[in-house]
Design a protein that fits this description.
CATH topology of the largest domain: Rossmann fold
Number of helices: 27
Radius of gyration: 24 Å
CATH class of the largest domain: Alpha Beta
Helix content: 55-70%
CATH superfamily of the largest domain: P-loop containing nucleotide triphosphate hydrolases
Length: about 550
């Protein structure tokens, strides 16, 4: 990540800045003092990626000026350099301290809001981004950040106002047109979104995202002009990896629609190469061993009576692209159910326990030593967070797919919570993941073989949970749901302990926003073309099928 300091600060420090388009605009600095000399050097170290040295200089300033706002701010930007959950949380803490020292500084409020958005604390992110907009009404990045936060929190209709304000201030800002289009896509307003995306492409603004979103607003039956344009873009040798990844995915999606499957797979594979995904499969295997060992029937028996016995939380989980969004949409069409989307709160509670570090010893000590009171406090923290979003709902759905790793923790905190495990044909599921534009947190999609072996580890863990918690995890088959929508939908609602409502059959007619890669599909009635879709790619995916082994239903 490039330096996040406002350009004027870098100029003041006589450092050649390479500000990202997502960073704040210039702000005035006080005159140079001794602290500024140290912070200038810290910035130079940051740009040279000498992060420990930059951090040490910031702490030197804090040693004699403990609440030096600019030093705290730079430490926040250093935390974001590492792009992992631990350092993201650390960045939030530093930005929060800087904003506390200078609450009227819009840039500190902006960075705090953006970092909160990154870790998934949408309500608090909205508060700080709103404040940044109030302090500096023409700060386009804050307006776009507020728009993104509204979309992420499932309130895309509220994102339109800040995006429209940003559009009037600076229509050439690279975040505005694509951001507005993204909000419209979440609301199902595809035609309007296409207009803004084509305008962004015409102005050469954020073209990777613009093309990728554009091709996902419809299904193609004839070759569109955009395909040739995308392929021309990919010839450019100066494309940055992130843009190249998005363009390859866009081309692959169009080619898949056109049933040119060999070419589509070639584009998806090139996207993975451009993304530079990295995944340590052996380390992940050991981590699954650790979870299975720690969360044994014997350990769970010692936690009987722990946590909160509420039935409000519902966890819809499984592999990405296994039908989690469809399941949530069906259930949340019920008037008593609120779909909260992919919540990060459970992961944020879990990380300090040792889940983040994947340290077997740290996690074991935390789980074994956890008291009933501690479990109730953690449950209360999670419940407080999600009930703010759906205060009147009888059930609130957390649709974070990878919560399948945290089922043991879920059962300690919420013994009576409903868990719906979405399953899908293993090959179809993996192909859908491989063709999706996931971020580096999904490094297991680096190649087909790694993806297949990762799926086996996911399956191994889910088999363990079924043994430890028999009869308490509802298996929800994508194929059965497609084959008999009403019967399976009634089964879902019955598992939630709610009376049937016919609105659940017309989930695609719901108002409100959808904020997942499936946002186009879930606005359509159920269709069967995704079942056994992998056969279109059979010749190209042998490494995947071999890696899946007996899980591949061929």
């Amino acid at each position: 990540m490039n330096n996040r300091l406002p350009p004027a600060w870098s100029k003041h420090f006589k450092v050649q800045s390479r500000p990202k388009t997502t960073q704040p605009k210039a702000m005035p600095l006080p005159r140079v003092r001794a602290d500024d000399v140290l912070l200038r050097q810290a910035l130079e170290f940051q740009q040279a990626k000498r992060f420990p040295e930059a951090e040490e200089l910031c702490h030197r300033v804090l040693a004699h000026t403990p609440n030096h706002a600019l030093s705290l701010y730079i430490l926040g930007t250093l935390g974001l350099e590492f792009d992992d959950e631990y350092n993201d949380e650390l960045a939030v803490k530093y930005f929060a301290r800087a904003a506390t020292q200078e609450p009227s500084n819009p840039y500190y409020q902006l960075s705090l809001g953006e970092s909160l958005l990154k870790v998934g604390d949408h309500p608090l992110a909205i508060n700080h981004l709103q404040l940044a907009c109030e302090l500096k009404p023409d700060l386009v990045q804050a307006l776009c950040g507020l728009g993104r936060a509204y979309v992420a929190s499932g309130r895309a209709e509220m994102a339109l106002t800040p995006y429209q304000r940003a559009l009037k201030i600076d229509s050439n800002h690279p975040l505005v047109l694509t951001g507005l289009a993204g909000a419209l896509i979440s609301l199902g307003r595809m035609n309007e979104a296409r207009g803004y995306l084509k305008e962004a492409i015409g102005r050469r603004l954020n073209i990777g995202l613009a093309y990728n979103d554009l091709v996902h607003t419809r299904k193609f039956t004839e070759q569109p002009a955009e395909l040739a344009s995308i392929m021309n873009e990919l010839v450019n040798p100066e494309l940055v990896p992130e843009v190249a990844k998005r363009l390859h995915h866009a081309a692959g999606k169009v080619l898949d629609d056109l049933q040119r499957y060999e070419e589509a797979m070639d584009q998806f594979q090139k996207a993975k190469i451009a993304a530079g995904y990295d995944f340590d499969l052996n380390s992940y295997r050991h981590w699954i061993d650790t979870l299975i060992d720690i969360f044994s029937p014997e350990t769970m028996a010692t936690k009987a009576g722990y946590g909160n016995f509420t039935e409000i939380p519902v966890f819809v989980l499984g592999m990405p692209r296994s039908g989690t969004t469809l399941t949530e949409q069906i259930c949340s069409s019920h008037p008593d159910v609120y779909g909260a989307g992919e919540q990060t709160k459970l992961r944020r509670i879990a990380n300090p326990m040792g889940f983040r570090t994947r340290s077997a010893e740290a996690l074991r000590n935390t789980i074994v030593s956890m008291t009933a009171d501690q479990s109730k406090a953690l449950a209360r923290e999670y419940l407080s967070d999600i009930t703010r979003q759906g205060p009147t709902a009888v059930r609130i759905i957390d649709k974070m797919p990878h919560n399948f790793e945290l089922i043991g923790l879920i059962k300690i905190l919420f013994p009576r919570a409903k868990i719906i495990h979405c399953t899908r044909d293993a090959i179809d599921n993996c192909i859908s993941c491989f063709g999706s534009n996931f971020n580096k947190g999904h490094g297991y999609i680096a190649n087909l073989r790694t993806l297949g072996l990762y799926y086996r580890e996911y399956d191994r863990l889910m088999r363990h949970w079924q043994v430890v918690f028999p009869g308490t995890i509802l298996e929800n088959s994508y194929e059965l749901l497609i084959a008999d929508q009403e019967a399976q939908s009634r089964r879902l609602i019955d598992d939630l302990g709610l009376p049937w409502d016919d609105a659940c059959l017309r989930f695609f007619d719901r108002d409100g926003s959808v904020n997942t890669p499936s946002r186009w599909q879930v606005r359509q009635p159920i269709y069967k073309s995704s079942v056994k879709r992998w056969k279109n790619y059979e010749c190209e995916i042998q490494p995947l099928i071999e890696a899946l082994g007996d899980l591949a239903d061929t």
